[in-house]
Amino acid sequence: MSDPLVIESIIGDRGDPALAERLHEIGHHGVVETLVVDPADLPRRRFHSHTDAGTACFVALPRSARLFDGAVVWLEGQRVIVVRVGEQRWLRLAPGADAALELGYLAGNLHWRVRFDGDCLLVAVDGPIEAYLARLKDFQQRGKVRIVE
After folding, report:
1. Cα gap 100→87, rounded to integer Å
2. Count of H-run helices and E-run strands, the chain
3. Kind of pairing, strands 114-117 and 56-60?
4. Within the chain, which residues score under 70 in pLDDT?
5. What is residue 62's predicted lDDT score, i.e. its pLDDT?
6. For the whole model, what pTM was predicted?
7. Under a CB-based contact definition with an 8 Å cutoff, are residues 144 and 106 in contact?
8. Which secondary-structure segment (H or E) carries 109?
9. Containing H/E element for 33?
Protein backbone atom coordinates (compact mmCIF):
# COMPACT_ATOMS: atom_id res chain seq x y z
CA MET A 1 0.00 0.00 0.00
CA SER A 2 1.42 3.42 -0.92
CA ASP A 3 1.58 6.45 1.33
CA PRO A 4 -1.42 8.79 1.08
CA LEU A 5 -1.21 12.01 -0.89
CA VAL A 6 -0.90 14.87 1.56
CA ILE A 7 -3.20 17.73 0.61
CA GLU A 8 -2.06 20.91 2.30
CA SER A 9 -3.74 23.64 0.28
CA ILE A 10 -6.61 24.56 -1.97
CA ILE A 11 -5.28 25.45 -5.40
CA GLY A 12 -8.47 27.11 -6.59
CA ASP A 13 -12.02 26.66 -7.85
CA ARG A 14 -12.78 24.34 -10.77
CA GLY A 15 -15.08 27.08 -12.10
CA ASP A 16 -12.20 29.56 -12.43
CA PRO A 17 -11.64 29.98 -16.20
CA ALA A 18 -7.88 29.41 -16.05
CA LEU A 19 -8.26 26.23 -13.99
CA ALA A 20 -11.29 25.02 -15.93
CA GLU A 21 -9.28 25.01 -19.15
CA ARG A 22 -6.46 23.06 -17.52
CA LEU A 23 -8.92 20.57 -16.00
CA HIS A 24 -10.57 20.09 -19.37
CA GLU A 25 -7.20 19.32 -20.95
CA ILE A 26 -6.25 16.90 -18.16
CA GLY A 27 -9.66 15.24 -18.53
CA HIS A 28 -8.73 14.31 -22.09
CA HIS A 29 -5.18 13.15 -21.48
CA GLY A 30 -4.80 12.45 -17.78
CA VAL A 31 -6.72 11.58 -14.65
CA VAL A 32 -9.38 13.66 -12.91
CA GLU A 33 -10.25 12.20 -9.51
CA THR A 34 -13.04 13.25 -7.18
CA LEU A 35 -12.67 13.48 -3.42
CA VAL A 36 -16.20 13.24 -2.03
CA VAL A 37 -16.49 15.07 1.29
CA ASP A 38 -19.50 14.77 3.56
CA PRO A 39 -21.02 18.18 4.36
CA ALA A 40 -20.36 17.55 8.05
CA ASP A 41 -16.63 17.20 7.30
CA LEU A 42 -16.26 20.50 5.44
CA PRO A 43 -15.17 22.46 8.54
CA ARG A 44 -12.55 19.84 9.41
CA ARG A 45 -8.95 20.70 8.56
CA ARG A 46 -7.40 17.26 9.00
CA PHE A 47 -8.85 13.93 7.91
CA HIS A 48 -8.15 10.82 5.86
CA SER A 49 -10.23 9.91 2.84
CA HIS A 50 -10.08 8.26 -0.59
CA THR A 51 -10.86 9.55 -4.06
CA ASP A 52 -13.31 7.84 -6.37
CA ALA A 53 -10.27 6.13 -7.96
CA GLY A 54 -9.15 4.75 -4.60
CA THR A 55 -6.26 7.15 -4.00
CA ALA A 56 -5.61 7.51 -0.27
CA CYS A 57 -5.49 11.15 0.79
CA PHE A 58 -4.61 12.92 4.01
CA VAL A 59 -6.12 16.38 4.09
CA ALA A 60 -4.08 18.72 6.32
CA LEU A 61 -5.22 22.27 5.60
CA PRO A 62 -4.20 25.45 7.40
CA ARG A 63 -6.78 27.12 9.65
CA SER A 64 -7.40 29.82 7.06
CA ALA A 65 -8.52 27.30 4.39
CA ARG A 66 -12.05 25.99 4.02
CA LEU A 67 -13.04 23.19 1.65
CA PHE A 68 -15.91 23.78 -0.76
CA ASP A 69 -17.64 22.03 -3.63
CA GLY A 70 -15.36 22.36 -6.65
CA ALA A 71 -12.15 23.01 -4.73
CA VAL A 72 -9.11 21.84 -6.66
CA VAL A 73 -6.81 20.31 -4.05
CA TRP A 74 -4.25 18.49 -6.20
CA LEU A 75 -2.83 19.45 -9.57
CA GLU A 76 0.35 17.77 -10.60
CA GLY A 77 1.30 16.69 -14.09
CA GLN A 78 -1.67 14.98 -15.68
CA ARG A 79 -3.50 14.32 -12.42
CA VAL A 80 -6.02 16.52 -10.64
CA ILE A 81 -8.19 15.97 -7.57
CA VAL A 82 -11.39 17.99 -7.17
CA VAL A 83 -13.62 18.09 -4.08
CA ARG A 84 -17.28 17.24 -4.42
CA VAL A 85 -19.51 17.80 -1.43
CA GLY A 86 -21.84 14.90 -0.77
CA GLU A 87 -25.53 15.56 -0.45
CA GLN A 88 -26.67 16.89 2.90
CA ARG A 89 -29.35 14.78 4.57
CA TRP A 90 -32.16 16.64 6.36
CA LEU A 91 -34.59 15.55 9.05
CA ARG A 92 -37.92 17.33 8.52
CA LEU A 93 -39.76 18.09 11.74
CA ALA A 94 -43.30 19.44 12.00
CA PRO A 95 -43.78 20.80 15.52
CA GLY A 96 -47.18 21.44 17.03
CA ALA A 97 -47.97 25.14 17.54
CA ASP A 98 -47.35 24.81 21.28
CA ALA A 99 -43.98 23.08 20.77
CA ALA A 100 -42.22 25.21 18.14
CA LEU A 101 -40.30 27.34 20.64
CA GLU A 102 -39.39 24.33 22.74
CA LEU A 103 -38.12 22.47 19.67
CA GLY A 104 -36.14 25.54 18.59
CA TYR A 105 -34.61 25.74 22.05
CA LEU A 106 -33.59 22.07 21.89
CA ALA A 107 -32.09 22.46 18.42
CA GLY A 108 -30.13 25.50 19.57
CA ASN A 109 -28.81 23.83 22.71
CA LEU A 110 -27.66 20.84 20.68
CA HIS A 111 -26.06 23.16 18.09
CA TRP A 112 -27.98 21.50 15.30
CA ARG A 113 -27.70 23.21 11.94
CA VAL A 114 -31.24 24.08 10.86
CA ARG A 115 -33.22 25.79 8.17
CA PHE A 116 -36.92 26.50 7.81
CA ASP A 117 -39.38 25.31 5.20
CA GLY A 118 -42.88 26.61 5.80
CA ASP A 119 -44.08 25.23 9.13
CA CYS A 120 -41.27 22.67 9.28
CA LEU A 121 -37.88 22.79 10.90
CA LEU A 122 -35.23 21.00 8.85
CA VAL A 123 -32.27 19.64 10.83
CA ALA A 124 -29.02 18.79 9.04
CA VAL A 125 -28.17 15.16 9.79
CA ASP A 126 -24.42 15.06 10.40
CA GLY A 127 -24.19 11.67 12.05
CA PRO A 128 -26.29 8.61 12.79
CA ILE A 129 -30.00 9.44 12.45
CA GLU A 130 -30.63 7.37 15.59
CA ALA A 131 -28.86 10.02 17.69
CA TYR A 132 -31.29 12.68 16.47
CA LEU A 133 -34.33 10.45 16.94
CA ALA A 134 -33.25 9.63 20.51
CA ARG A 135 -33.17 13.36 21.33
CA LEU A 136 -36.64 13.79 19.81
CA LYS A 137 -38.21 10.73 21.43
CA ASP A 138 -39.84 12.67 24.29
CA PHE A 139 -41.24 15.24 21.85
CA GLN A 140 -42.72 12.48 19.71
CA GLN A 141 -44.18 10.57 22.66
CA ARG A 142 -45.90 13.73 23.89
CA GLY A 143 -47.25 14.42 20.39
CA LYS A 144 -45.30 17.70 20.16
CA VAL A 145 -43.41 16.93 16.98
CA ARG A 146 -44.00 14.81 13.92
CA ILE A 147 -41.24 13.57 11.65
CA VAL A 148 -42.25 14.22 8.06
CA GLU A 149 -40.89 11.85 5.40
Report:
1. 27
2. 3, 11
3. unpaired
4. 1
5. 96
6. 0.66
7. no
8. helix 100-109
9. strand 31-37
